[in-house]
Structures are given as structure tokens and as C-alpha cells.
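Milestone M4 deliverable, item 7.
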Amino acid sequence: MAKWPLIIFASIMTTTNTKPLPIHQQLAHELNIRAEQAQAAITLLDEGATVPFIARYRKEATGGLSDVALRDLETRLLYLRELNDRRSTILETIKAAGKLTPELSTQIYSADTKQRLEDLYAPYRPRRRTRAQIAREAGLEPLADQLIATQNDPETLAIQYLQPDTKFNDAKAVLEGARDILAERWSENADLLANLRNYLTKNAWLYSTVVEGKETEGANFRDWFHYSGRLLALPSHRALALFRGRSLGFLDLRLGLSPELDEQDPHPALLRIARYLKLKADFSESASAHGQWLARCCRW
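Output delivered:
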């Protein structure tokens, strides 16, 4: 089966209204077949025909599509339909909340994976009251913006936002509130998330250790008690063994970078966050108070 890329090139999008092309045209583009072949296969599948049946008895209708091509088409068809259904739901939800802008609408229509859709939806998802929300309600968002836009001493700025009768009654608490606002804002930045996720996809290592006290009970998984290796080079049978060990409670798994990169200070991910957001964060010991504060926000 073909391995579908994370990003479907913009050429499959219309240039006039940002909406994706009809599914049969998208499938034709991705599978390198004619649109008529894709539409015929979709029609047969929707009528209940199976892939083996179509490949053997309906070659004249599909232009001779092989069972492999039909299987890829069927899998991708399901994904694109689920993607479009989720897209419609997200658009309706955000529109009902009165927060749908032309720019956001364009981004949502251009989203080519479910993960990208969920990243775009994250800031608008209904949720419980967060620490960042409490800080915003206390009027600390302008302070967070100031701390990004200027290089002034954070405590000097924070003093202007003290609220004696609330939890934000000292500079430390006020700065923590501003930090919570920025951390939530960054964690919901769909483009930053995509940047970090793609970086991790290419560079991730999987680490496995035995759960303390499970050495005897989990003896069948002893080969994975102290394991590490590149995620992209991980064979499927090994991945299944590791996941099974975790599901049974014998193994702890974590994603990271190579041992050399994971031990770097500052961590490469921190530098990537600061660079992507164009922050004046400074991770050195001699950094200014402002640079150190932004660095702590990145770590947070």
C-alpha cells in the first residue's frame, strides 16, 4: 500500500475559493489515474462492491485499475471523507461561536490532515477554565504582549498589574499569569505544532525502560527493559512488542531525540520554539532578566 505524505501539495487545491477539489479529483491526482477512473471506482464501492470484485469483474468500468490501486483508493477515500466531515463540523462550531474569520476559514479548508484540522481547532475547542483564562480575565494579556514586544525588565512591568485583593498580588504571581497566557497561546499555534511535529517525526528516538517492580512479571519483555533507537528505523514487529509491553504495564515508553541531542542545554526543541516565534529568549547564564524570563516561558 502506498505511504501517503503528511502534506498534500497545494496544487490539488482550487486557486479561486480555497476549498479542496472534489474527492474523485483529489484521488486521481494522488494515485496518478484519470478522474473518470476514480469516480467509477467510488461509485462501485458506494454500491457495495468489494475491491476484489471490482478488480476482477469491473475492469471495463475502472479502466483496468489493479486491486492494489483500488485498495489504496478505498483507504484514501475513507480518510478524505472523514476529513471533510470533521472539517464541516469544525467550521460550523467556530462559526456558531462568532469566531470564524476569512483567514481561519482559508486555513481550515486548506488543512490536508486530521491532525492539522485539530491543531487549527484547538484554540476554539470548548474546555474547562484554564490558568491562562483566569490570567486573561484578570487583565494580564496586555502584559504578556508587552513582554514579547519589548525588552523591559519583567518585574518592572509586572508591578503595574498588581491586584492586591486577588491571587495576582505580587510580581511573581503576575509574571506566572503572563507566562500561562503565552504558554497556552504557543501550545495552540497550529503552525508551530506542525513545525515541531515534523521535526520530531524525522529525528525522534523511542526510549523504553522497565516499570519499577515489574522486572520478574514482565520477564518476556526483558529485551526492551533498556532500549533506545531511531523511530523511523523501528521495525513494525518491534514496535508492536514495545506497545504491548506498555499496554500490559511492564514498559515505560517516551519519545525524545538522540542521546546526544537530548542532553544538550538548551534542548534543541527550546531553540526551535524561540526561533520560530522570533522571541528574544536567551538561554545563557549571563542573559538579561527579560531574556531569561522568555527562556523560562519556552521551557514551560
